[in-house]
């Protein structure tokens, strides 16, 4: 069991998880970069991709919490050598979550215009939002299916196959983006923003097919739904409920950040879109080690090894800070060229360059917050995660944003509030974790 927390084993889990995790923001970043460089109405198209991306991310994060719940339960049963007892759970969880995704499509498709008006989208930006969303939304069930399968693999301590699936999906999306957005002279007409939406849906479908194939051929977990429900389904649903509330709080932050950026003008929402997508990219890179924490903490908790949980957390703190500082360093070296990948509009680039340094400074803070977030998910302590994020959002982020916006700080207000939000998310988790697992005499 000690070998589970060796650097070799942590990297065996973290590096493929990092590559798999990066596929999610790469899908959005690819759309952002390619759409931001089309010939007609590039700024409006870029703004629409950012607004719709924020809304779709909200939906995926709310319902995609199956990954953490499945991973937590499977890894704990693996650690206690009782895997056979929960073999039926993943298929039942996938059935529940994909059924909900169909309801989401039916409930949002007719009201797309109303939804994006809530994000302060108007005129051509609103028109593009509606057109883009009414295609992208059909990839939603495929994405949730894939996320749930990734949860099963994580519980089994396997991040290799999710990495392969993610590489296939991201590569497909990039190729189709270029073909469908820009077209091929004499063969395929440019589809502009709609082409980016179709590319994403096709990539998501392909990832779902690959996920089903690898789960059925490489694990003992079936996809056929069987009844009665597994005895852990109640615990699964309770975890989902707590994560659901938590993710709503998370998306309150993203909603207000997006809505305020949109209200400042099209150049500001375009700049915010670039900055937040790069923030997401950093978050998902760090998530490789957060995933290792999630996966290994569940197994160690199931095996009743608090000593190894503390040792694991100490190692992950070091690795997380190194990764966060590394990301900030790379971002600093590429500070000005990065913006040009997404837009050539001088007003957009000026707004982006003014705030990107805050995104870079956040990276080590984000690393610690995300790593302990992952470890608490592995432990199944979803209620505590819920309460911490509610406090960080409503007692820190929103008051800071409203105050700094009132002072006229615009994008600075958004990213300073997000930095303090991350501090408020991470610090309580570190303190609580050490209280839970350090021997009592070491806590004083």
TrEMBL record:
TM segment ranges: 45-63, 93-112, 132-153, 160-184, 196-216, 236-257, 269-296, 316-335, 355-372, 384-404, 410-431
InterPro entries: DinF-like, MATE_fam, MATE_MdtK, MdtK-like
Annotated Pfam families: MatE
Bilayer topology term: Multi-pass membrane protein
GO cellular component: plasma membrane
CDD domains, sorted: MATE_DinF_like
Subcellular location: Cell membrane
Family of this protein: Belongs to the multi antimicrobial extrusion (MATE) (TC 2.A.66.1) family.
NCBIfam families according to UniProt: matE
Name used for this protein in its record: Multidrug-efflux transporter
